[in-house]
Amino acid sequence: MTLGNRTETKSAPAVLTPFDSRHLPGALNLSQEMRWPYRLEDWAFAAEVGAGFALERAGEVIGTAMYWAYGADFASVGMIIVTGAEQGAGHGARLFGALLDRTHGRNVLLNSTEEGLALYRRNGFSAYGTVCQHQGQLAMAAVPDMPPDIRRAGVADLAAIQAFDHRAMGLPRGPMIAALAEVGSVYVIDRGGEVAGYAIARRFGRGHVIGPVAAESDADARRLTLAQLAALQGQFVRIDVQEAHGLGAFLEGFGLACVGKVTSMVKGQRPVSVGAARIYALANQSFG
Fold first, then answer.
1. pLDDT tens for residues 226-263?
2. In the CATH hierarchy, which fold is given to the domain comprising 2-105?
3. Measured distance CA(255)–CA(139) in Å, rounded
4. pLDDT tens-digit profile of 116-153?
């Protein structure tokens, strides 16, 4: 009887459907199978600020793919997963094709593992950078004094933080930044009453993630990151940084080792930052 049920399930069609809240438990199961550290709350947040697809067979979620739109011209894609038992049947390509159809006409960003590079290159993506995932249990002495130009952000700072992020990222993602600030702790550099950098830390996965971190110099990025680290002593911390900006050695000094790298890719035009503002750490590898 059990074998018959399995056969019937396997022969049922795989149905592509818009991702909604009913898919959250199944999506969590997929990420746990892949040993991704997502919590149910992390999936719920990603779905709330974005959109995507679930692939179902007989009511079971066997695949996911998500995207996040930034203004009229850009989007990022990620969280593309197919359960191991269903891999090799073209489901990944089907999910990715649905994302490309939905984001058609936009410049599309993603971060790829080594295994995904060939698929993305076949679909017109090109590499432009490397992101290092640093993480570990944070054992450090708290910073005795906060630098005078770094302070906690308030509600009144949100518009300035969003504007700074737009310059640093080269694309508008105001609603995403507002959602991250709502659930996280935010520090800003206040330079003569103007926001000259910011960093957000929030609960994620095994502990906390720091990101985005946006600043006008490497030194400012380190100081903002240190402000967040000082509040996370003894916690598990993750931060995904642009390798080109050289924060790796600084993070490793706090025991946050680089445990993996992904390749940043774009289909279309890569966003260009404005002025000195730069993104040093990502919100996560899917959001950018």
1. 999 998 989 999 999 999 998 999 999 999 999 999 99
2. Aminopeptidase (3.40.630)
3. 7
4. 999 899 999 999 999 999 999 998 766 656 789 999 99
CATH class of 133-281: alpha beta
Neighbours of 105 (CB within 10 A): 9
Other Cβ atoms closer than 10 A to 163: 15
Separation CA 283–CA 238 (nearest Å): 11
For the chain, domain boundaries: 2-105, 133-281
Name beta bridge partners: 210.
201
Cα–Cα distance between 225 and 221 in angstroms, integer?
6
- Tell me whether the CATH fold assigned to 2-105 matches the one assigned to 133-281: yes
Q: Closest Cα to residue 142, out of 60, 81, 230?
A: 230
**Measured distance CA(202)–CA(185) in Å, rounded:** 6
Q: Which residues of 39-56 are buried (b: 16+ CB within 10 A; e: fewer)?
A: eeebbebbbebbbbbbbb
Q: Which two tokens stand for residue 152?
A: 């906690």
Distance CA 13, CA 168 (A): 44
What is the CB neighbour count within 10 angstroms for residue 84?
Answer: 11
Say if CB 210 and CB 225 are below 8 A apart.
Answer: yes
